[in-house]
Structure prediction request, 740 residues.
Amino acid sequence: MGSPMKIRASLSGETADVKVLMRHDMETGQRKDASGAVIPAWYIQEVTVALNGKAVVTAEWGAAVSKDPYLALKVKGAKSGDAVSVTWVDNKGDTRTDETKIA
Amino acid sequence: MREALNLERRKALKAGAGFGLLSALLSVGLISPQQARAAVNKGAFDAKTLDETYKALGVSAPAVSDQVVINASDIAENGAVVPIGIKSNLPNTQMVALLVERNPNPLSASYNLTEAAVPEVTMRVKMGQTSNVIALVKADGKFYTATKEIKITLGGCGG
Amino acid sequence: MRYKLFVLAALAGMSVGAGAAETASLVAKQAEKMFLESFRSDNPKYWMRRLEQDEAMRLCSTYKDNPPAKIRQQIQLKEMATIRYPVDGKLIGDWMEGEKLASSGRGGHIGFIQPDPRGTPRGGNCYACHELSPREVAYGTIGPSLKHFGRTRGNGEDVIKYVYDKVYNSNAFSACTNMPRFGYHSWLTPEQITHIVAYLLDPESPVNGD
Amino acid sequence: MRHLLALLAGCVLASAAMAARAQDKSGDEVAKYREMLADGNPADLVELRGEELWKAKRGPKNASLEQCDLGLGPGVVDGAYAQLPKYFPDSKKVMDLEARLVYCMTTLQGFTEAEVTKAWFTKPGKEADMEALVTFVGARSNGKPINVANRHPQEAAMAKMGEYIFYRRAGPQDFSCAICHANDNKRIRLQELGNLTTKEGAGTAMKSFPAYRVSQGNVWSMQRRLIDCMRQARWPEPKYLSDAVIALEVYLQGKANGTVMQTPGIKR
Prediction:
């Protein structure tokens, strides 16, 4: 079920600045461990950012996204108190959703 | 039963931008992640060259545009984490994607934007070596690009 | 507690008028013991031997790399005598091989956390400390810039021998310098050192290009 | 002749200026890279996990670490990191944060020392609890000045021995800590090296650890940092929590004394 994300959402005018940190290994499947065995690919493939439950941005990721992913984007028509939620799904089917209110 | 599930799935896929639904299906184990991936950007993430990637994405002859801006440093101290921002000043921007030319699979990430999104995203990607990075933008049905070289330097003690 | 007892015992044995030097050597004795006891007991003996100091290391450590002139002279003379040359006597090799060595900081890492895989070739890691080719931006500044070294110094016999000797045993010229003694420790072979010489002096080498 | 000399001197100056500009440009770009990284430090997530671990009832005694005495009394976390390492009368030893956490995990929670030190750093797929705890406790000293008084004779003795080790050369590259870290304004490759014998240099280093290392993808404690320095020096591997490592920490914290903590940092 994954580790919690850290979502920051701040308002400037009617635009919300959303910054997300996720905890994920984002293994490419190309690395080997100390014993020489390949570490299997394990990475987030899909991210959805929603405002008050309505998807604003949907992203597809490859294994090239860095470990402990960071994502920053901007949402229009937001106001203080609105809910920003982020959902990710990885290639093993693990998923996680976190939510924050715009300050 | 299988029929029913397939129907369910087709409905979900038909919903198009229904990523939320997709993840809901995934989380209850109705479809496998591989199926999910196949449903969205078939092949593009596995493509090994820029041309193959464009082909898989259905892009032909994208125009270079100064309305697409890449925000990144010329030098990255470490290839494991390279922060890159893409901004589009083109009206009706629907999609932005980041490609790293010399990575084993150039396509790193793509973002479908609704009208509620400002066409500006920042992310961090791995780069195996010094390479051009390409911002690919779809606006009003047409594709545009911007390119920037990012140097990956050997850092620290070197070992 | 162990240390305290040791201090007391040592103090009792001190002659009248014992000064800073004795205190310093006392600290050194304790610290040396503690240092050597601080390594994992499963480090193989041949790894642990890397912690042993030769005379130059010991003197440089004692004087914090700034020994008095007399000792400096003594170290340099002794180190100069250690330099060995390739069998064929040729001191300038292949700059392309030299570039590989200059760029690599790998090899020789031991321990249990991130050792180099067996057989990893040792690099000279010149770029960690020196600017060399104008095309490489990621260079260190611990040592002086060697950009255009051959262009400015030429590549006469004397210069070739000087560069070879300096890389083989830096302490022969400058006691307690930050630069490793690459040949003395067999970190690089005499032949590999001739490649580094070429990288610095060959007119074709990128070090002497624009 | 004089003209020629003047001309030559001019050339030297010009090329020096050009080189300086080229270096500034690299420097600016590296600064921009770091600025973009600083906007989101994954160590913040590690810190959250550390707080959970701190409060969780664990071990054979089913106890949390909330009564652990980090030097300011049982349960006081705020500002504790900034005044470590220090001498603890209960263990009769100078301990850094990690040594102290191990002490608390054995005495309060009933773990064995071997259990809690076995996986002290993160490996692929296995996050180390110790790193998370250190990140949490470290962050609770944010904004506090480093304050290691070295009042106890054992602390003073450790600082002296740390200094000795700092200058001790060994190994097939003749390295000591001082080779890279006893001069001002030097770089290794593109990374600036702090002069750890000065307050400024030691302060810059010590205030930012524990720090997230993007090249490693996890947080490094000062133990990990120093043990890896010895690996880079091509030395054998020191024991985790050994006196030599703690002595170096005491020496360096002493040099950094008074510097305001700013942790977790984010580094290459």
Q: What stands out?
A: DSSP finds four helices and nine strands in chain B.
